[in-house]
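Entry 14. Ran structure prediction on the chain below.
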Amino acid sequence: LFLHRFCWLPTWPIMLLLLLLQFLALLAGSTNSGCSYEAVAELRSKVVQENYDPALMTGLWYEHIYIDPAQIGASCQTLNVTFDAGTNTLNTDFSVLYGSQPFTIVEHYAPEDSSKKGVYKKYVDIPFGIPGGSLVTLPTAVVIAELSPDGSRYDSMVLSSCYSLLVTTIEELVVFSRKPSMDEQRLRALLKAVREQGGNFREADLQHVDHSKCPSMAVAHDVVQGAAGTQFQ
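Output, structure tokens:
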């Protein structure tokens, strides 16, 4: 989160400066009347409200669609999730590429209210060990979480966050699944469900992630092609 908008610039000092500028601007307050824990909680599906199990979120996720100004210029977004059963906190590595340069930021999702399943205070570890990341928390909710066929984990999810920047409320929306690609019809169904649950977003603001051009996918493709070539020699 709070990924700087011009992270494609090759110099870390510039990247760090932009990160800190955004962070300081947000110290004015992450919530207002348009952004609150109550507001994001209202977006949750009935299934999430009643049966959400954070332990089933663990593992690697691929981002497919996002609305998030902080991700401008990013590609190949993934989220690797671990679960701390002692605190019920989700700890994640959010990894992206800016051009060919990898960048990872550690995000934490701490329960906002134990009686509200899937509602979190989201905060980050600022890179380079700079303290203060936990001072800014973003209201975040699991809007949709769909189980795998065997019920052992969640296979797809939609998250919504918000924050206030001066007098403007920024609303984020991200769609993840366990695979690098997701059927367009399935994506449309998830977005339709978000709208039916109160989500308010513009179609034009949706950004798609193409993992087919990501380095890990290229390696996997080469391995498959090599295996196929060996088989028929």
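The longest strand covers residues 154-165. Will compare against last week's run tomorrow.
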